[in-house]
Amino acid sequence: MVQKRVDHGAVMNERQQPPTGGLAATLLREGRKMLSFGVIGVGNGFVNYAVTVGVTVLVLTPLGLAANDPALGLAKALGWAVAVSNSYLLNTLFTFAHESGRRLSWPTYLRFVASGTVGLAIEVASFLFAVRYLPLSLAAIVPIGLAFVANFAMARLFVFSRPGGRH
């Protein structure tokens, strides 16, 4: 445990230290994390697409299963699983490196997958709501934004939170 002196006062441990930099520094730090999380998310959208289409074209089509709904569902699920696993890896190593210590673990991975699943449910539910009131082109975009905010918040607060509630 690191001991520090603050204003020549009592010695305080790391968890007792006041936040550094104030609100502007916190917003900047979290904004950077959100941007990193978003860039990784966009990249994993491409990973999801590539795996889904690749499995469909290279595996299902030669097997005559390209029109088979369960097979297509499995291809899509595989694309999502590869993308969410890659997202966990990259967010652990980069976006939340400080919080995770750049250490991969099964409990954290399972929390990340669970939070991604909740984010997916939020996206689907908000799409089904939005499509009733907005044109399809907007109804498809709004849920992506809501899911992004929900996914980032869950990753930040529940998956990669530091002990003692400090971020």
Describe this structure in words.
The protein has 167 residues and is mainly alpha-helical. It has one domain (3-165). The chain contains six helices and two strands, in the order E-E-H-H-H-H-H-H. It has helices at residues 22-60, 69-95, 97-100, 106-130, 136-139, 142-159; strands at 3-5, 11-13. The protein has a two-stranded antiparallel ribbon with strand order 1-2. A hairpin with a 5-residue loop joins strand 1 and strand 2 (11-13).
Give me some keywords for this one.
globular, 70% helix, mainly alpha, 6 helices, 167 residues, two-stranded antiparallel ribbon
- Estimate nothing, just give the exact number of structural domains: 1
- What is the number of E strands? 2
> Order of strands in the sheet with the most strands?
1-2
Q: Report the mean per-residue pLDDT as an integer.
A: 89
GO cellular component, one term: plasma membrane
Pfam families: GtrA_DPMS_TM
Protein name: GtrA family protein
Transmembrane segments: 37-65, 77-97, 109-130, 136-159
Chart the SSEs and their pairings.
Layout: E1 3-5, E2 11-13, H1 22-60, H2 69-95, H3 97-100, H4 106-130, H5 136-139, H6 142-159
Antiparallel strand pairs: 1-2
